[in-house]
Design a protein that fits this description.
It is a single chain. The protein is mainly α and 71 residues long. It has one domain. It contains two helices and no strands. The radius of gyration is 23 Å and the shape is elongated.
């Protein structure tokens, strides 16, 4: 049985189309907006990685300092 609930449905996005179809259908503005949203999402993901890496670095340095002080 297929699940037709909204959270499992594919969403049509302009990036699914060829550039000539985007222009022909008048979706240039929407395609630009999609690009901005995707760039924002990528930036958010990178920020999360930077924060996680910074946290790991802090934990590592703290552990190294504790180990060095114990010698």
């Amino acid at each position: 049985m297929a699940d037709n609930s909204p959270e499992h449905m594919s969403i049509f996005m302009p990036s699914c189309l060829h550039i000539s179809d985007i222009q022909r259908l008048g979706l240039v503005t929407m395609a630009s907006q999609e690009l901005e949203l995707r760039q924002g999402q990528a930036n958010d993901a990178l920020e999360g990685l930077r924060l996680a890496l910074g946290h790991k670095t802090l934990l590592f340095r703290t552990k190294v300092m504790v180990l060095l002080q114990g010698e």
